[in-house]
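=== Structure Prediction Worksheet ===
Name of assembly: unnamed complex
Input type: mixed (protein and possibly other molecules)
Chain count: two
Listed entries:
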Amino acid sequence: MLYKQLETAFFPRKHPLDADTITLNQKRIYILPSRSGLILAVVLFAMLLGAINYNNSLAYALTFLLISVTTVSILHTWRNLYKLQINIGECPPVHKGTMIQVPIAVNNPDTYQHLAIKLAWPGQEPTHIDLKPKEQHWVQLTTPAIQRGYQTIGKLVIYSRYPLGLFQAWGNLYFDARCLVYPTPSENKQLPPVNSYNNADSGENKEGSDDFTGQRKYQNGDSMRHVNWKALAKGHRLLTKQFGGESPNELVLSWHQTDKTEVEKRLSQLTRWILEAHQIGLHFGLELPHLQLPVDHGDPHLHRCLKALALYGKQA
Amino acid sequence: MITHKQVELAPYREEQSQPPLNGIIWLLGALLLVIIPHLFRLPIWISISCLAVLGWRVLAEYHHWPLPSSLIKLAITLGMIVATYLQFFTFNGLLPGSALLTMMLCLKLLEMHCIRDAMIMVFLGYFLVTTSFLFDQSVLSGLYLFTVVFTLTTALIILNHPLATKDHQRHYLSLASSLLLQAIPLMMVLFILFPRIPGPLWTLPNDQTSAKTGLSDSMRLGEITQLAESHDVAFRVKFDAAPPPANQLYWRGPVLWQTDGRNWQDLSAEFPLRDLAPKYKPQFFGEPVNYTITLQPHKQLWVFALDLPANIPDIATQHFDYQLIAENQVDDVIRYTATSYLQYTTGEPWPFALSAALQLPAQPNPRTKELAQQWLRQGLTPNQIVNQALDLFHEQPFYYSRTPPILASDDPVDEFLFTTQRGFCEHYAASFVTLMRAASIPARIVTGYQGGEFNSMGNYLIVRQSNAHAWAEVWLDSRGWVRVDPTAVIPTERIETTLDSQRFQTTLSDALNAQQSDWITQRIYWLRSGWDAANYQWNQWILGYDANKQQQFLRNLGLYNLSIKQLLMMLLLSMAAIIIGVMCYLLFHSTKSKDPVIAGYQLFCKKLAKVGIEHQSWQGPYTFCELACKKLPHLSQQITTITQCYIALRYQSDRSRHKELFLRLVNQFDPRQF
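=== Predicted Assembly ===
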């Protein structure tokens, strides 16, 4: 709380969004005593009074030594952030209600180590980083996905209290980065009625998935039923069995098929359908009031559809 | 499958996070070091409970025992407080205060769980170290306690490192020492320039802690059968010129007047005229002796000076019996300068003093009184009677002994004079004064120190508790108060210890110039003198650094009469300069990386930079490798191998095996070749 007030009072937010790489320099690092530092100040004052009262030279010496160590620790804490470079990576899209994972790299260009660096959204539990000399460290910051569409990363704080915990040095990071958040998939996994299956081409090969023709590397979205579990158990990597007779069952998932409730619920339902259809290997298309995505399959198509749902009714 | 759960994040508080186990263990160790000096002073039950709580916490950390409930904590805390009160019947004063503080520190261990608690423990530890200094400011205790501060600071560092591991141990120690070393210039400036305010801010509680001295304000004849041979230093004296002869060095202390035949004591506190100044100033002859005394704390009001002081130090007043009394109890090392004359005649005393100097109880010691009456009946003058008594000690078989027999009878002076005839200064002084008073000659016992040991290494005189002495003063109409030392007339062959026989000779004993001692003894003396000289300087410059010394120091720098404002200004400016200096040191003193692997990789990057492939600090080794391979396709194999070696050495556990290969490859690598 104290920090927030002080920060808004003394350092009004004028920051434009930062580029991909932020280097912490003199202008970016702030430093203030921590609560423990204030407690120590009270203790030191008491010690000084004692030293004066008893006119005790060693008590004076110890009090002055501790005052000096505290002062020197300001410089150490400040230097612990100085020159660090922070990069932000692409964050993979997630569904609303889960956690956004933001990859962040902290690079130490110095020849000495920087320990106990903390990275977090303000007020949230930080990720601890120790950096050896010349070391770059990737960490995943997580935050709840709360809003469908693009969720901005917002303000990040990199801070440290090392070595003595008496002062907190921090730098604010306003990255020009955002995360795509898909709608929450509905609980209802039931796909639309069978008559909407577009199996006009032929129905003869419905059981055709028996004809095993080979296998390939597992891709996101491949059906669990087609995973070669035996191979996995033997220690091979995740493989998907391919079947020659697989018929391209096609399905167009439409806005109008959903129950006419709130927009978010309808988007949720469509999201669930798309995930289910992708999972069982159907080819599917998507119809939204202002957008039509033709029937297709595969990961890129899945993400195209989910993105369309995520951005429904929003400025891209 | 994606799990869908709504996540609620509790607000995070930095101070509430869990400290690393490593840090807690260090903290507990440091706290043990903090309380050890207190444990010896405190009642045994407090010491044992403190150690028990500390031990419990160590075990609790390893076995993950839960902390006690608040009811138990409350009960223990209240119990300890009540028990402390019952022990001391007060919380005011140094010893009860430090007992309470030590206990609070240990009890806090019962509820320490988050990092803030742990840090408060460190701060309390610092505070407790300060209270230790109020009891003991010797060189050794100073060194010990600063080591403790180092340990506490290390603990503080580890507590603030959430990913603390054993591998960092060396880093913590070196960081703690560099923090303390970098703090030292700042500390010295503060120590020297911080305005010293004389006098206490509030009245100090009167502590009843006893101190070891060879003197006391009363004397019980014949009950002490063994003189304590304490080598503790009473005070040190620096003479402006050459020191006077040893047999002239009588350091005047408390004067004893009243007796019941066995006990001797100062005039009782009810005696209304006790604090009077001398009626007349004595007349002084001969050369003045100027000197500075550094007095060790003895928790009394006594201030010592060479017999007889002509000017009185500021801190003391002179009573009518020429004894110097300090304004405040001497709790710390004090320094004062004085001037004395070895030759003097005192003026006429207050009339009450002469009657007080004749006080003698009617009952005990009839044979002594009879002897004095006999001398009076012979018509001897007071002068002759004094000599008669001294002849008695000189000619009769009187022995100087540090282990005399007990004087058990009701007439202790009789028993000593006519039966045992063995004793030390107290016996001789008391018997002599009894004889004089019985012969109607006003007399009193003066206690203090006699002689001293010269330290030629530091060029000062050490007066130890073993130099404690008692002698007599008699009033002779023609000469005033005259010092008579009956112990000094015992011939050397009747003195049982050689050390005492040296006391009344003219040459000062000087351990360094002792001729007869062998080489090893000489070395030991040499070490002892050196150590004592170090203590002397410590007392002079560290412990005795006060407002006066500060002014003196600044005058030496050419700064006269600085006001507090100017002093503070100077302090702030020097501090700013030092802080900037430390900052520059931290930023520009590039610690050369000692890891040859990193140095090797830096060399590799430098070589590539020469052909125009710059390594950007944000590039990882892989990225840089790809870039370099693209630019220098013919060297891609070498570049890739070096990079892979580097990554294996740097980020994987594989340490030693590839090191030689890597360094050789880097050294041979030459991107300019085609």
